[in-house]
Amino acid sequence: MGDFLLVTIQVDMHDRLAMTLQDDLTNLISRTGSRGVLIDISSLDMVDSFIGRMLANIAQMSRVLDARTVVTGMRPAVAITLVELGMSLAGVHRADRRAGDGAAPGRAGAAEYHERGGGRGRGRRRRGGSRGRGRRRCR
Amino acid sequence: MRGVAAGLGFSLIDQTKIVTAASELARNTLEHGGGGTCRLEAVAGSRKGIRLTFEDQGPGIPDLSSP
Questions:
Q1: Which helix (H) or strand (E) holds B14?
Q2: CA-to-CA distance for A9 and A25, rounded, in angstroms?
Q3: Which residues pair with A70 in a beta bridge?
Q4: Are A94 and A61 in contact (CB under 8 A)?
Q5: Exposure on the CB side of residue A88, measured as CA atoms within 13 A
Q6: Best CA proximity match to A69, nearest among A35, A24, A42, A97
Q7: B10 in helix, strand or coil?
Q8: Which residues of A touch B23 (CB under 8 A)?
Q9: Does B17 touch chain A (CB under 8 A)?
Q10: What's the rounded Cα separation, in Å, for the pair A14 and A78?
Q11: Which of A89, B28, B34, B58 has its CA 20 to 30 A from that of A111?
């Protein structure tokens, strides 16, 4: 099983930061041969079209590189709002961790995640260090 | 803004919709309107509510339906 990159978004992303994230992830996927990106948005109490576009872009770029994008932690109020906004997170898979699953994403891989529906997207993104944008889990 | 909405008694879902709509409007105001203002008012009366007014001096969108 290939690696999954883990990204936790904890901040309001401004445009440049979002572009940086997209570029960084693309480079990282390409360089590490990762099978996918897991984007944790559980800290976001709002996802607007800007963030939605960013997630869809990441999904598109990773797909070109034969990797998958999975978004996890979407809050119910956010999900409802996205649906009513008519926003489709094209190409973005959604997944939720089962309760009690304390395993790191890399260890869990795809098997422990319950996947729902496919494709239809205020903190500070941490930079640097092993807890930065791309945390690699080796399998 | 979310705090104001919460204080007015809006549900979590409605709060999220409000701040998301506000984010979209703010973005439009900045990107297409060349900047502008946002006014937030609490509405009292028979129905309580929140009013957000975004104003810019941008060119607007042409009326595609007119000849």
A1: helix B12-31
A2: 13
A3: A38, A93
A4: no
A5: 6
A6: A35
A7: coil
A8: 46, 48, 50
A9: yes
A10: 19
A11: A89
A84 with B17: Cβ contact below 8 A: yes
Q: Longest C-alpha distance within chain A, in Å?
A: 39
Residue B23 touches chain A, beta carbons under 8 Å: yes
Owner of token pair 């992303």: A13
For an interface test with A, give the residue of B1, B12, B20, B25 to mutate (most A CBs within 10 A).
B20
Tokens of B56: 């810019």
> What are B11-54's pLDDT values in tens digits?
999 999 999 999 999 999 998 888 899 999 999 888 889 999 99
Instruction: Measure CA B28 to chain center.
Output: 11
Chain B contact set for A76 (CB, 8 A): 13
Give this prediction's pTM.
0.70
